[in-house]
Amino acid sequence: MAYELTETHKLIRDTARRIAREKVQPRAAQIDEEGRYPDDIFAIYRQAGLLGLTIPAAYGGGGAGFLALALTVEEISKYCSSSGLVLVLGTLSTQPIILGGSEEQKRAWLPRVAAGDIKGAFGLTEPNAGSDPAAMESRAVRDGDEYVIDGEKMFISGGNVADFVIVFAKTDPTAGPRGVSAFIVPTDSPGFSVARLDHKMGVTGVPTASLAFQGCRVPAANLIGEEGRGFATAMLTLGTCRPVVAARGLGLAEGALAYALDFARERRTFGRPILEHQAIRFMLADMATQIEAARHLVYHAAWLIDQGKYDRQYAVYFSFAKVFATEMAVKVSSDAMQILGGQGYMKDHPLERHYRDARQLMIVEGTSEIQRMIIAHAVAEGDIAYW
Ligand SMILES: Cc1cc2nc3c(=O)[nH]c(=O)nc-3n(C[C@H](O)[C@H](O)[C@H](O)COP(=O)(O)OP(=O)(O)OC[C@H]3O[C@@H](n4cnc5c(N)ncnc54)[C@H](O)[C@@H]3O)c2cc1C
């Protein structure tokens, strides 16, 4: 149960902190306003070697692990949640290959992602299958040396800028979750298209897309693992990425608190800075307490993954981190806005953006309700013992 930051962790965190302050902070409001993928920020990550932190060194990555990624995402998300998500997507799209792919697939895809030559996206959700992905309707049928994929994926983060998408489709529609297979689908494959971009509330710097697969042909060699293993790969991938989504919430909350604190020192009411009013001080105390609690859940969960502890029995720790840190981010960003009074509601300050961005986190990669289902199962089954 003991995690500790190594010198490497601290070095990576300090690099991320510098990039966050010097490069991301000045761009954050503009990224939100433009609603376009921030290629300039991606290029900065590439130069700093931050794109392959969870990709093993043997495949061109940094091999630094999930705690290193969580620390990096936390620093960046203090200023810009979209730029934090850019980093998460690199892991979300490569974990299926790392966890379930062949040696050839790892050699073919991972080094290029780590080098920033290509980007990936993760395509699980469909119009009729979100929390219940086994209900997916996409089909993949083998045809000689190829698979032909038909279906639709929706809300796919970065789907419009991706060079490849990890696509989950049923190869055996009668077999439930065991009939789901995973494929690496290059976005220049025949039959692939971006059908629509969504208009969304926050995290606008990483557009979400509906993707259409109409007789989309990929080489049979792009099947990840064996037929029928896709659902397990998807669940493991989502599990390992949850602490990193949680790290986005942690960083976002820290950024919101720091901003509100600076404001509270300057803003005066009734003849003194609002920081001297007990109501404000207690709000800040609660915010800080929640942040520190989230930090331990997030770091611990990420550290577990780095110890190779990420199979089903550890899923509850990833859910603890995800549900607590993301709901905390919504509460803390709301309280931070409150401390600014009317100013907090205005776009002159970043807090309304933080609030909008935080809200996304309770929905993606398993909603809060799904996390509670996982936790409740672990509690009810005695996997977590309190006696
Ligand atoms: C901004 C954004 C980015 C996203 N990026 C991606 C991406 O990159 N790739 C991808 O594949 N998907 C992505 N998603 C999709 C996301 O993972 C789904 O939206 C999420 O899993 C919920 O699915 P749903 O929207 O279909 O809601 P539903 O599954 O329809 O759920 C609706 C509501 O019912 C609740 N609910 C459902 N089942 C139960 C139950 N058994 N018990 C209690 N409550 C339940 C849910 O918690 C929710 O509150 C993204 C979504 C958003 C908003």
Topology:
Blueprint: H1 7-34, H2 39-48, H3 66-77, H4 81-92, H5 95-100, H6 103-114, E1 120-123, E2 139-143, E3 146-157, E4 164-170, E5 180-186, E6 192-197, E7 208-219, E8 223-224, H7 230-266, E9 268-269, E10 272-273, H8 278-306, H9 315-339, H10 351-361, H11 368-380
Parallel strand pairs: 1-4
Antiparallel strand pairs: 2-3, 3-7, 4-5, 5-8, 6-7, 9-10
Low confidence ranges: none
Oligomeric state as shown? single chain
Question: What is the highest CATH level, the class of the largest domain?
Answer: Mainly Alpha
Q: Which ligands are bound?
A: flavin-adenine dinucleotide
Strand content is 15-25%
Q: Average pLDDT across residues?
A: 97
Find the CATH superfamily of the largest domain.
Butyryl-CoA Dehydrogenase, subunit A, domain 3
* Helix percentage: 40-55%
Radius of gyration from the alpha-carbon trace, in angstroms: 21 Å
**CATH-assigned fold name of the largest domain:** Butyryl-CoA Dehydrogenase, subunit A, domain 3
Which overall shape is indicated by the principal axes computed on the Cα atoms?
Answer: globular
